[in-house]
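ok trying again, last paste got cut off:
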Amino acid sequence: MRVTRAMCRGKPAGCVLDFGRRPLQAGLGGCPWRVAVASILLCRTRKVCVAPMLKGFFARWPTAGDLARSDTEELEAVLQPLGLQRRRARQLQRFSVRYLGDSWEELTDLPGVGAYVRDAVGLVCFGLTDVACGDKALLEYVECCQSSTTVT
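nice, full thing came through this time. structure:
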């Protein structure tokens, strides 16, 4: 699966279907940057820990530019309940700075983006169902995308 800069900069098509169980990222309105940030936070952290803080996180830093310019200590304090806050803060800031630039072609060129983040963005934002990372929630979402006929 390829998720390119051109795809992320264009208006996302979205793959938000109306069914009960879906990954946390599916509720983020199809914004590739937000889906990527949520996915980065979900690496090594359970959904039940990340979900409660996402609304406040995106209220404080609604755009890549806001997060790129964020105060590192404030970001670390917000991320502290998730653990690895220093590493995550620096990684999210570097990711956001590079996301805004033109020095990347594929999402995996950005810091903190591996197969899981790439697959989550591809699936949630663009409806790409070729999920290779093996994540249970994403694979269940693929099954629902492929079996559902009602798109909202």
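cool. The chain has a mean pLDDT of 84. Residues 85-100 form the longest helix (16 residues).
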